[in-house]
Every structure is written in C-alpha cells, then in structure tokens.
Amino acid sequence: MTNFEFIFRFWTHIVMAYAFTFWACYILLKEYANVSAMRLHFIASERRRPNQFTVLVKNVPPGPDESVSESVEHFFVDNHPDHYLTHQVVCNANKLAQLVKEKKEKQNWLDYYQLKYSRNQSKRPMTKTGFLGLCGKEVDAIDHQTCEIERISKEIAEETKRVKKDPKSFMPAAFVSFKTRWAASVCAQTLQSRNPTVWLTEWAPEPQDVHWDNLAIPYVSLSIRRLIASVAFFFLTLFFMIPITLVQSLANIEDIEKYAPFLKPIIEVPFIKSFIQGFLPGIALKIFLIVLPTILMLISKFEGFLSISSLERRAATRCYIFNFVNVFLVSVIAGTVLQQLKTFLHQSAASNIPTTIGVAIPMKATFFITYIMVDGWVGVAGEILRLKLLVIYHLKNFFMVKTEKDREEAMDPGSIGFNTGEPQIQLYFLLGLVYAVVTPVLLPFILIFFALAYVVFRHQIINVYNQEYESAAAFWPDVHGRIISAMVFSQLILMGLMSTKGAALSTSSLIALPILTIVFHKFCKGRYEPAFIRYPSQEAMMKDTLERAREPNLNLKGYLHNAYIHPVFENEDDEDDISFEKSEQESVLVPTKRQSRRNTPVPNKISGGSSPSLPNVV
C-alpha cells in the first residue's frame, strides 16, 4: 500500500466523522425545535387540569402556635392575597394505605370462598390460619375472612381518625391552589422567602402522576437518601461487571480451551463453537439484565421523588449509564481478550484509555451485530407477540386469580415503561454513532431495528398500553443530552483508534469535533431547554383570559376541592361521588384507540378547549 493510499484511507474516516457529526447535529437541532414547538402548542391548547393552578410547597417552617394547615393559609393569604384560593396539606397515610390494601386482599379472598361455596353448598370451604394458608389451625374460610375484614375495618377507622387529628401525621408540605394559572406560574418559579431553605415551591404533578408513598418522606432526609442511592447504584454497576465479564469471556474459544482443556473436544464441534461465539454471550447478557429495571426503580423510589414521571426519568438515566458501562464498555474490554481487561486496569495515564477502547471496538463489531439481532430484533418481535406477558398472565391465572377482578388485573397491560424502553433505544444510538465511521457494516442492522421498533411501538402505544400520565415531552432534554454524550464519546474513541495507527496529523484534525459538539449542546440547552423547565407567563395569562370569557361563572374552588385528596380517603361510602368529582377534575390524556377502565381518566366534562395534540412519546 502506498503512502498516498494509507493517508487517503485515514482522511476518508475523518471526513465521514465530520459528516456524521454535522448531520446528527442538524437533525437534533430540527428535532429540538420541533418538539419544543409541539410542547408549547400542547400547553396552549390542553384542557383545564388541576396541576395548572396548583404548586407543591415543601419544607413549611413550624409555627409556634399554629398547625401546618394554618401556617400555609396565613403565609399565602399574606403574600398572595389576590390570588390564593385553597390548599390541601400532605399527610402521612402510608400505614392507612397498607391497611386498605390488606382489606382489599381479604375481601378478594372472601369473594373467592363465597363463589366456591355457591357452586358446591354441600361442603363449607376451609383454610388454615398460618402462613399463606399452608399451616396452622384449620377454620371455616368464609367466617375467618369475614372476621379478618371486620378487624381490619376497625383498624382502618382508628387509623383514619388518627391521621386526620394527630398533628404529627401532617407533613410540612401542601398542595396550594390559586385562582389563575398566571399566579400559580409566578409562585412555582419564584423564591417565596428570604430563607431559601423554607417555603420551597415547584409545579405540582398531575393527580394521577403523584407517587403518594414518597410524600410522607421528610424533606431534610432527601439529600441523605439520594447520597445513599448514588452509592448503591455505583456498587450495583461495579459488581454487575463480574458476571458480565465472565459471560463475555466465553466468546473467546482460545481462553476457554486454555483454562478448561477437557472441554476442547466439545467446543471444537462446529455447531457448538458457532453458538458459543455468536449467540451465547448475547443471550446470557440479556438474562442478566432482566431484573435491572426493577432494581433501578426501587432505588429511585428510595430517593423520594414525588411523581411517577420523575421516578421513571431518574431510572431511565441510571439504566442508560448502567447499559453504557456494563453492556458496552465491559463487553468491549472483557470480550475481546481477557488480557485486555488487565491492560485497561493498569494504564499509566488516563489518556491511554481511549486508545485501549478504540483498539478493542473494531474487534467487537461481530458481537454487537449478534447483540442487536438477539436483543433488538428478537426483542421487538417479542414486544408485538408479548410472549413474556402472556406467560406471566397464565402463571397468575393458575396461581393467583380467584375472582373476575383478579382476572381483569392480570390482563391489564400496564404502561409502556419509559424507564426501560428509552435507555435501550439510546444504547442503539450509541452503537450506531460509535461504529458509523469505524465499522459501517453494523449500521444496516441498527437501521432495521429502528424501522421495526417504530412500527411496533407505534402500534403498542396506540392500541395496547395504558397512559399513566402526560409528560408533555418532558423526557426530551434528557434524550438530547444522552445523544450528545454518545457523539462526544464516539469522537474520543475514534481519536484513540487513529492514534494507534501512527497518524498524528489525522488524530489532531479530530480535536475540533468534540469541542463543536459541546458548543452545539450548550446552544440547544440555552435556546430550547427553558421551554421544558419553565411555564411561559404569557401563555398562562392568555389561557386565563380566554377561560374567564368562556366560563365567567366557573366554580374553580369546587373544581379543585378534591383534586389532590389521598386515595385512601376515598372510602366505600362516598367512593362513587368522589370518583365523579375527580373525573371532572382530571383532563383527557392523549387519546388512543384503547382506553383502560383502571388507569385512563374519563373525558373532562366541564372544561373547554381542544384535545391535546402531542403524544407522550418522549
């Protein structure tokens, strides 16, 4: 190969790196502008919702002779005299919620035994009082469950009285509602006191988006909880490297034969050798990652986030970091050769790390092609077939379903789960950006995955899944930031790879790429991100003016009266009335062809305006 050809091949990679970077930045810029415009249009055209008029006030300072409710009322009457409307204090009802849940389970068992007895009245159903009805004294099942329900009902009544009357059950937080959207917007986005640690305000989440269990967590403990969660996530990521490293080392036949020579006759069989090198690492990696989303969601709940959407956003961020470290980096380092890990850990300088990874990445293209087919293609096919959920349904139907209510709950498809789907898709963005210039043969496999995923998930979102909340594209800044970080990482890796080829001039010509990418990210962050963080006062005033013109006699206080009532206070006696009131308060989520009776709010009957136009897809 002549020197001209040698240099030409390097400059081809460099030109393509600049081309991919400029193309990706152009697409991201257009998409950011488009998503932000759709978000503002959605906010301007959506119907009336309780959270538009409500802010969540935290860390209410204790008054000398006042309750939390009185302190909140006096503070906002004094500081927002023309706009304050009403408030609802947050109470610690977690124990009460547990009792209500236990009562529902006992009632379900009672319905089951009564149904069983109605079919065969010759023999009363019997059960044991021990663990799961497997041990202990045998008693009449119907009488036993009836007594248990009566006992729990008394405990619920006592706990309800305690929660409503005991000052210690009220948390220093409240949902405060205002007469206008403009007033709520000003309150949520301004400092309320000279002391910046008290009277903290933020936008209240939608009523169906509130994670009620975390409202009882004291504000002072949130920082400690988040520190503990960060440490736990660090060690989870660190220790997960061990099994994944061992799994990825299986792809190296030479190392297996070296450390286990007695397996050589079996490994050398062509079919087994192909299976070990091709599919075994990808399948094993997928099995290891099955429990990951549940663990990350538990860590996010421990941190104390107050809404389901914020829980999913934090879990999605950590899931992406975990996939980046354990699926990508560990697979690259441990899967090429076992000695590569030793080399990586003993680098004398941090600058050598991109070089080490850059050398390993081209050699792992085959593994990631297999991973895309196993995890991506097969995963999308499994999504449309829903085999996993079908198996879970039949297991529930066989072991847990006792009544028609149980069957309906077992058949509920749930929500799409942004904390799992979105990080997976972004991992494929990372693979595409890394291999676009280094090994372009991987790109057709990723394009096929995105084409299949678009068709399948569009169908699932419209026709299958329930929508728990409306985020109004709040996930997009996180998505944009992770794509930018993937671009910068791919550029650094390309520089490390080029440096191993002795092309100093070619390597130095890539230095401008990460700088330009970071500058582009700063521009997008300053230009478009405020639309995802703040609510324009101009939009709020326009909606208030239109609403006063259309409905001059609107009883807004009655509309917001039970908007943020804790679900456990919806007792059986007034459940229907409260449900009707709440159905009038909650707005329509983005309409789909399928609407669940359990999760999807009924259409708003008293508010005007057009239907929302932005689907909750980011």
Automatic annotation (TrEMBL):
Q: Where is the CSC1/OSCA1-like 7TM region domain?
A: 225-498
- Has UniProt tagged this entry with the keyword Calcium? yes
State where composition is biased (Polar residues): 598-618
- Enumerate the spans annotated as CSC1/OSCA1-like cytosolic domain: 52-214
Q: Which domain of life is it from?
A: Eukaryota
**Does this UniProt record's set of keywords contain Calcium?**
yes
Q: One GO CC term of this entry?
A: plasma membrane
- Where do the segments described as Disordered lie? 576-618
Q: Which key words tag this protein in UniProt?
A: Calcium, Ion channel, Ion transport, Membrane, Transmembrane, Transmembrane helix, Transport
Transmembrane spans:
6-29, 227-251, 271-299, 320-338, 427-457, 504-524
Which Pfam family, any one of them, does this sequence belong to?
RSN1_7TM
List GO molecular-function terms, semicolon-separated.
calcium-activated cation channel activity
Q: What is this protein called?
A: Calcium permeable stress-gated cation channel 1-like isoform X1
